[in-house]
Structure formats: structure tokens, C-alpha cells
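Same chain as my last thread, 203 residues:
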Amino acid sequence: MFEFPEFSALQRRAIYLLLALSLVVGAIFFSLAHGNAASTVPVTPTPLPSYSLPPLPPALIVVDVAGKVLHPGIYKLPQGSRAADAIKAAGNQLKGVSLTDINLAEVLTDGQQIIVGAPPITSTSSKSKKSGGSKGKITSGTININTATVAQFEQLPGIGAVMAARIFAYRTAHGLFATIEDLTKVSGMGKSKFANLKSFVRI
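reply #2:
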């Protein structure tokens, strides 16, 4: 029959130390293995909230609506507005006022003035015929230089057929006039000639 050898006290102590060391090493390996397993768990990222910038306000232009409207004055309108929009902003024309002399589809520019119900254009054509004159000239009212024809330009004081054609050609080449003073940019339009006709023109 097999018999266990008897160990001395020193040997038993050594055996106990080996057992304790084995337990410690086993615990270390277990903790490392558990940590590696935990690190392999996929982490789902939290989505960041999305933000959208507010839309930019539309660019504005300032126009002057004068004449026979309900509320004449200065109005701020979105860029690209038309003459009809400005008249509507001013409360529309007064009862019985005609808008046939205004291009309601005209795209407005900053600083433009719209006169509703301007006096009709009158000329001295009848007088000139009796006196032998060639063409009648305006004595009252105004002409819109952005919509006038060559014939209408000829009705301005001091403007003949050649200058009327130059004004029309300048507007065609460079676009609508921003102010009535832009007429002085037309070749041959001197300060004195402009001074004689400026009270009869508008934009």
C-alpha cells in the first residue's frame, strides 16, 4: 500500500507558498482575460445633433412712391420687386386714377421714384402748326426716361431728333437710368441743356 511521505515543517511551508503563488498567478491571468474580452465590445457612437442655419433675409431696396396713392412715402421692398408691388405697398392708387402711364412690370432699383397720376403730357404742337413750327415741346407733365420712345424724347425742350436717338441708344446699351442726372452721361448733353429739361423728366 502506497504511503504519503512525511514532510518536514520547512517542506510543508514551501508547498503552501507554491500553492499561494499559483492562486495569485491564476487570478492575474483571469483578470487580464476578462479585461481583453470587455475591450472587444463594440461601442456605438452617440450621433451629434444637427443644426441648420436660418435663411438669410432678402436684400431690400428703398423706393419713393409719390402722387395719387393712399399712403405716399418711402418704402422698403425685396430686391426684384416691380412697380406694381410698390404701388400696392403704398395702399394702391386713389379711386379714378389711371396707371396706364406706368409700366407696372418694371423691375425697381434702389432709390427709384414712382409717381402715380402724374399730369398728362401736353405740348405746343397745335400752336407750332399754326406758327409753322416743326415739333411740339412739353409745357407740363413729365416723361419717364426709362420707358420713353425716341419720339417722346424729342418732345423735351432743347432735344432734337439726333439727341433723342442718342438718349435712346445710351439707355439700350447701358440699361435703365438710375437717376435723371444720368442723362448728362449721354454724349452732347451739356449742363445747360439738362437744366432746361430736368423738370420734365422722371424715372
